[in-house]
Amino acid sequence: MQKVYNKILSVTGNVITVKAEGIANEELAEISTSRGKSLAQAIKLDHDIVSLQVFAGSQGIATNDEVRFLGNPMRVTFSDDMLGRIFNGSGVPRDKGPALAENLIEIAGPSVNPAKRIIPRNMIRTNIPMIDVFNSLVVSQKLPIFSVSGEPYNELLARIALQAEVDLIVLGGIGLKYDQYMYFKNTLEEGGALSRSIFFIHTASDPIVEGLMVPDLCLAVAEKFALNGKNVLVLLTDMTNFADALKEIAITMEQVPSNRGYPGDLYSQLAARYEKAVDFDDAGSVTILAATTMPGDDVTHPVPDNTGYITEGQFYLRNGRIEPFGSLSRLKQQVNDKTRDDHRAIMDGLIQLYAQYNETEEKRAMGFRMSAWDKKLLKYGKLFEANMMDLSVNISLENALDKGWEILAECFTPEETRMKTDLITKFWPREAK
Amino acid sequence: MNKTKGTIIGINGNMISVEFEGNIIQNEVGYVITGEDRLKSEVVKIQGNIAYMQVFEITKGLKVNDRVEFSGEMLSAQLGPGILGMVYDGLQNPLNELAEMHGFFLKRGVILDALDFKAEWEFTPVAKKGDTVYAASVLGHVPEGIFEHKIFVPFNLQGDFKVTSIVEKGKYKVTDTIATIENDKGDKHKLSMFFDWPVKIPIEFYREKLVPKEPLLTQTRIIDTFFPVAKGGTYCIPGPFGAGKTVLQQVTSRFAEADIVIIAACGERAGEVVETLREFPEITDPRTGKPLMERTIIICNTSSMPVAAREASVYTAATLGEYYRQMGLNVLLLADSTSRWAQAMRELSGRLEEIPGEEAFPAYLESRIAQFYERAGLVEFEDGTFGSLTIGGTVSPAGGNFEEPVTQSTLKVVGAFHGLSQERSNARRYPAIHPLDSWSKYKSFIDAMPIQYACDILRKGNDVHQMMLVVGEEGTSIEDFVIYLKSEFLDNVYLQQNSFDSVDGATSPERQKHVFNFVHNVLTKQFSLKEKDEARNFFNKLRQLFIDWNYIDMRNGEFKKQEAKITQLIEENSDNAEGV
Q1: Which end of chain A has fewer CB atoms at under 10 Å, N or C?
Q2: What is the pTM of this model?
Q3: Strand pairing of B179-182 and B161-166?
């Protein structure tokens, strides 16, 4: 039975309280205001006082507006009809298609039993050497792209989405700029991927609380498709906006902030979302790629910091390229021993030399004389940046590995590379020996 | 028995306030009844007739006026044969059994027995009728894997008892009565092979706690040789994300020379536990020839599982560790990560509206951390045997900054500090334990003098390196330059170790001794190197040979051959009369 109340006791930020009985924790309510209807969710119960966060924001709420409790927590429709459709942060279509109300599933369901997870073992090839060679992306991985505003992180996400071999793409936009949203739509359309995509879009102009639901909506749908045997790639952009929405609600609720105003449970909140990445035994998988912008390019900011502890690695996108230092795929060890014998050695060897190049580059900039070894490193660094790091490079993993050996042979003698002798015998380019 | 009942009057996240009638205990377990489900919760604060309880499950759908039943018991672990090889959540629910019953997801409100009540164990009695026994006296034992699992008089019985009957040797279930005991007052108890013990209370049934001396070898060179861990000691591994804490813990859990390893995955990624979960049954423990899983217990409360159970999970792990220590075994508990545990405390504290300390952590953070690590120890039992519990915890400091409260509180109480550095990790120098920052109060199995010498070389090498960054290579003398190359050599061939290689991943103590001797020899040797390029080339070659050597099995004939090659190269370039 639906319960209707029309006395709102308090309005603080985007949280309102009403006096109501028999309300369940996290139950949904619908508020009818002069501006229209908005969903709200019970976030705290104290005797008969119910605190509700209003998704559309509290502007224009009158104390006698009608609050109707729906008797259920947040749910989302689930069916194949969702493919190619675009929804907003409350799960309502924002394209002109018909509303979908059948087969509702609960969002933010229980977590997967670790005993039912399997060790991820399939690589997702992206044809970006900085990913494929150095930090392979793996099915069921959760990986953020740490970046700053202005970097092409959304372009990178879209490119990976198009090139990755997955059955389904779910895009969650949180505080997404309108032009970026159109960019995703157009890119996926041109690439012929829109018909296997589902969008949940909360744009920067929408009420901030509405963005809170986007990750849960995306992941609930993705999880369901995965259980039906599909390999799903979830793109979330930008998770910093999600964290900021959490912060806003927490402060409104007068929670003790832990670090720069963020609530103490930021880690658990983020983890509850990212941990939905999974590879099911005998079913599909969910892989999560999320953009996280670092305020002030500071990785110790609570959002990227907590994210880094949750996710299975991170890509740093800086100056338009994926940084070799700091970027890490924790699952790469699961797959990069099955690709080619030299994959791991090339991965480590090239990076160690590139680190030395950076030191030499610093010395050079300070005006020191360059030794013969330094000159070799300088040559190497330039070649590495041009042939591996540049984001425009679009070659297969095998070609990238060959390229790695070519670069080494062009710059160094075999023993300078620290490679194991048997690999050198097998892969060192012949003409250079 | 009449149990206290109550009703919910408020819900805030995973914290509920409950109005109750009657008496309750701090840390008592209660069950929230919602529909078909019974949600386990724990009393964390009592004020008048209102109890504040943390719910170990998602509180979605709970309502004001839902009923709560108190159990009269504190949060406890079930102790008895059959724990080894199990995978539990933070409250000791067996996850594999849960998966069999409920599939992919962790269904809310399901509570299972930690032990298999159907399995039969071959019980051999030790105590006899008429013996005087008390808590933690041994009644008999059953074989569990390669160990003799002792069956104790329950730890929670107080005073002396006489054994009035005890069963014959034979097969029994854990629930079967195996003995009856009685005290002078006529109190009788029927004893089975298992009992409950509250997880937050240390098990302290021993004669004396001793100072840890003997090293606990992990087969990771930088740890065993330079920053050793002792049996019964404590250590911590702080490090920023991506520095390799978890890989280091995994390698340790695999190769450490402990009888039993307990892995407490506390608020970390599920994926990491899965690796252990799936791989350990397949790996043979070289020391016993049995699957590694048979000596392992996994407590797994990953980051998306309810926070309150995360807080409980490290206590559950410590309790199981103490229980097996009581059998005279050497137990190693690896907690990953204690920061997540501390954060769980912080969330709870915030919901209780306690006055926050630094970074909103509760004021009692430090004492809780100390209490946890103090559960480790080498102990001597009444019968003169020994047992040990070693605790190693990772710390995940916010922003990789070791100045934060959890790292600082931990450093005060542990015996060894393996600080991981982002810089070393970026340079792919794994394990990324920083050799200049880390320390250990325990004694290495290798002589102190050569280690001191090696540390000096590292320090000097670092100084030279810093200087070279300023004055350049040309401004550095050949003597200093060789010291730098020597320190780099030590770092490359000994401190760094490839944990993903089957040979290099684990270095046995005798190999460590042998190789370290060799390395030390290089460090002390005078070489006839006159030019920097010549010196660099020589050390490059030497390093190459050494790294190849590290990948050769010691039992393989190639091992000696490679050693001969290295010796030859060193001899060719050594100069006892002049040079540097």
Answers
A1: N
A2: 0.91
A3: antiparallel
